[in-house]
Automatic annotation (TrEMBL):
Domain of life: Eukaryota
Organism this protein belongs to: Coleophoma cylindrospora
Signal peptide location: none
Macro domain location: 19-201
Residues of the full protein shown: 11 to 214 of 295
Official protein name in the record: Macro-containing protein
Length: 204
């Protein structure tokens, strides 16, 4: 089982008037988790990899996932024909403790194309959640897509991620997922989720 820091932390809810988030959800709190560490160790149904368009492996979390999964993963990925930015594809998990890997291709951050970057990042989260639901994965853990070498600002990325998850859980397929975990690795991402999760999902 995975530790869920968010649920354990006693956070002071912001007063409603100071919240800029429309309709924060306390009822969906149980479905949200926040962990810090190596996503390859999580025993969830699906983990989400920050892949690149080739789907043929890379550095960062992608490298860690391929290393822990073993060569079978790269072999399967070679048959997928790549993936568009803003979308995702699903594979088996081989030697990983999870059941499936969802390979999402986040945008390379570009301040001149901020709207396009945001749309693509949101697309990664939404497509990954849909793929999980379609494949009967009940629990899913996301790495912080695009916030590494793709340079997406962590505070902005966290808000896009959390909003996309909230919208999905409130939508028609939301009841197909029991747990959505955000897995952070660096200080800047951990700080961003500490700041924004309680605004979207205020502690009860
Ligand atoms: P991108 O190219 O999408 O930015 P990166 O792999 O460089 O992908 O980074 C994505 C995020 O994954 C970064 O926030 C990075 O700190 C994080 N990360 C790197 N290794 C791991 C790991 N083993 N488990 C979880 N997150 C990781």
């Amino acid at each position: 089982t995975i530790p869920l820091l968010y649920k354990l932390k006693k956070l002071t809810p912001a007063p409603p008037s100071s919240s800029s988030i429309p309709n924060p959800s306390q009822t969906l709190n149980d479905k949200i988790g926040l962990v810090r560490g190596d996503i390859t160790t999580l025993e969830v149904d699906a983990i989400v990899n920050a892949a690149n368009e080739s789907l043929l492996g890379g550095g960062g979390v992608d490298g860690a996932i391929h290393k822990a999964a073993g060569p079978g993963l790269l072999k399967e990925c070679k048959g997928l024909g790549g993936c568009d930015t803003g979308s995702a594809k699903i594979t088996d998990a081989y030697k990983l403790p999870c059941n499936r890997v969802i390979h999402a291709v986040g945008p390379i951050w570009n301040r001149d194309w901020a709207e396009k970057s945001e749309k693509d990042l949101r697309g990664c989260y939404t497509t990954s959640l849909q793929l999980a639901a379609e494949n009967r994965c009940k629990s899913i853990a996301f790495s912080s897509l695009s916030t590494g070498v793709y340079r997406y600002p962590s505070r902005d990325a966290a808000q896009v991620a959390i909003k996309a998850v909230k919208d999905f859980l409130e939508g028609e397929d939301g009841d197909k997922l029991d747990k959505v975990v955000f897995c952070t690795f660096t200080d800047k991402d951990a700080d961003a989720y500490d700041e924004w999760l309680p605004k979207f999902f205020p502690p009860v």
